[in-house]
Design a protein that fits this description.
110 residues, 2 strands
Length: 110
Amino acid sequence: MVAGRPVVPDKITWLTSEMIKTRVAHGYCSPHLAAETCPYANICENCDNYQTSSQFLPQLEDQLADACILHDDAVQRGWDSEVARHARLIASLQRHIDRLKHDTPTTPPA
């Protein structure tokens, strides 16, 4: 808590707040609107060197769900650079998720 307020707001407050938003691995990034889009936002998920595994599917699916909400929010607010950034992230996360689901055995080995 800082000044009687949580350092990280609850998810609903964060998702609907009037600020640029990025979901990261263990928290959220919320720069001020005047800062514009961060050049480092979701850089790992879009990097060719990014590796993940099926153990992280729940987190990746949660991140994808948040990215879709943030994309739609940016569309409604007319934040074109944020719309494009979230669209890139959504495509990247979907590729990772699809690959992991394709590579994950659906039946346990005998």
